[in-house]
Design goal:
Layout lengths: L2 H9 L3 E3 L6 E8 L2 E10 L2 E4 L9 H8 L6 H13 L6 H5 L3 H17 L3 E6 L5 E7 L5 E8 L8 E6 L16 H12 L2 H16 L2 E3 L9 E7 L2 E6 L10 E5 L2 H14 L9 H9 L38 E2 L8 E2 L1 H10 L3 E3 L2 E5 L6 E5 L3 H6 L11 E3 L2 E2 L28 E3 L3 E2 L7 E3 L1
Antiparallel strand pairs: 1-2, 2-3, 3-4, 5-6, 6-7, 7-8, 9-10, 10-11, 11-12, 12-18, 13-14, 15-16, 16-17, 19-21, 20-22
């Protein structure tokens, strides 16, 4: 037992570390007689605390704390305890205001909502009248939950949807605050019954029924991606665009290099034949040249192995922070799976060399060369940079008339970000009027 683990046991005995996740802690801490539920995740020297109802009033201080670096969880929890031990000044409005009329309005609108809207499957209002949970049924009898928060301060409108199971961007606010619960619910109902959104749900439901979906583990309506097993060693991640659901989706293969290469060639051969007017599920089958997807197997009572197929070879778990392994060893005799976070920490501990936006080192299983994106690589990739495809992961993002702004001489510069206009070693330059990221049209070499 390390020194910080001993300190954690002595100072915070109700905090435990998950056995399947090295960087996650959960439990309770006691401050001034009050117990606070803690769920803490670690990323290198940064810690992120899940903010629940008890911690909401300390949200600003906790977010500021997440930007600081700490050597271990004990140091973070010590600082958190100091924050929770400080009594925040009570707002003047909370002391003097009488909320009787507001309580009456909330209860009246909630009662009317239950009486006149028959598509409500379930509803619940908290005992302190601060939150309202509603599950709505659409025309296909699909359930759509939402959580409404009641604002009793004088700085905004009364009702606000704080959580709903609808597709949205991270920074997108689907619904504005309203003073009427009925108006807010009707806006939610209108969006759910939108034909485009109903088409999204129909397509995803068909995939869930006919495929072996391994991620998300329990798909919900806001999840627009599905990781589907093609065979026991190969999976495909399909991500749909809600604004263009019938367009060619984003595709990524994950598995042994030889299998990925085979399907890469198949998709490269067929993607121009995609017909958005036909059934999307059948178009996916044509794109992959298969008759059907692999069905989900029935659970067997076989003996459990040390590492099951698809589990990370470092942490021995299938999910890490709700993420599945996304890197495969390129060695065909190994083909072990890894979480990018696990492999990154492993390679850093070996002082492996870093090249542009990737780190190279030895595979933990076969000791052959393996590579992993750096911690900032995903952020750079979102801005338009390109990562190497050497680990057996290929992404079909979009087909567009954009000139290729980088170079790729396989003998000299196999990994070159797009912001570089030429290779300083071989001085070769390439241009490509039709670019397909991950699945490329033939290069046109220009001397």
């Amino acid at each position: 037992m390390s020194s910080y683990e001993l300190d954690l046991l002595l100072k915070y005995p109700m905090i435990m570390q998950r056995s399947t996740c090295d960087g996650e802690y959960f439990g309770y801490i006691k401050v001034k007689g009050d117990h606070y539920k803690i769920r803490l995740t670690r990323n290198l020297k940064r810690f992120k605390l899940e903010i629940n109802e008890d911690l909401e009033k300390y949200e600003r201080e906790i977010k500021r704390l997440s930007k600081q670096s700490f050597m271990d969880p004990v140091e973070y929890l010590d600082k958190l305890t100091e924050i929770l031990s400080v009594d925040l000044p009570q707002q003047k409005d909370e002391i003097t205001s009488n909320y009787t009329s507001v309580y009456r309005k909330v209860l009246q609108e909630y009662t009317e909502l239950r009486q006149f809207y028959f598509n409500i499957h379930k509803s619940f209002i908290s005992s302190n009248l601060k939150t309202i949970d509603i599950i709505q049924l659409d025309e296909q009898m699909r359930q759509h939950p939402m959580k409404i928060k009641v604002n009793y301060s004088n700085d905004g409108k009364l009702f606000k949807i704080v959580k709903c199971d609808l597709p949205q961007k991270d920074d997108e606010n689907l619904f504005e605050e309203e003073d009427s619960l009925i108006i807010l619910y009707e806006k939610f109902m209108t969006r759910v019954d939108c034909p485009k959104l109903q088409m999204v749900f129909d397509i995803l439901d068909e995939i869930d029924r006919n495929c072996w979906v391994i991620d998300p583990e329990k798909p919900c309506r806001r999840d627009l991606h599905r990781r589907i097993m093609l065979d026991m060693n190969l999976s495909i991640v399909i991500t749909f665009n809600p604004s263009g659901m019938r367009d060619l989706p984003q595709i990524k293969f994950l598995g042994p290099h030889s299998a990925v290469k085979k399907y890469k060639e198949i998709v490269s051969r067929n993607f121009l034949n995609w017909n958005p007017n036909e059934d999307i599920f059948n178009e996916l089958l044509k794109l992959l040249e298969i008759e059907s997807f692999m069905p989900k197997p029935t659970q067997s009572q076989d003996e459990e192995l040390l590492v099951n197929d698809g589990e990370c070879c470092i942490c021995f778990s299938l999910r890490l922070n709700d993420k599945m392994p996304d890197i495969v060893c390129p060695n065909s005799s190994c083909s072990q799976y890894f979480h990018s976070e696990c492999l990154y920490q492993w390679l850093c501990s070996l002082n492996s060399r870093k090249f542009y936006y990737e780190i190279y080192g030895q595979c933990p299983n076969c000791e052959k060369t393996i590579q992993c994106p750096l911690a900032t690589a995903k952020m750079q990739n979102d801005r338009g940079f390109r990562l190497s495809k050497g680990i057996g992961v290929y992404a079909l993002v979009k087909w567009s008339m954009i000139p290729l702004r980088g170079v790729r001489n396989m003998k000299c510069c196999p990994v070159v970000p797009r912001r570089y206009q030429g290779c300083k070693d071989c001085t070769r330059n390439y241009s490509n009027p039709l670019r397909l990221e991950g699945l490329e049209a033939p290069f046109v070499h220009s001397e």
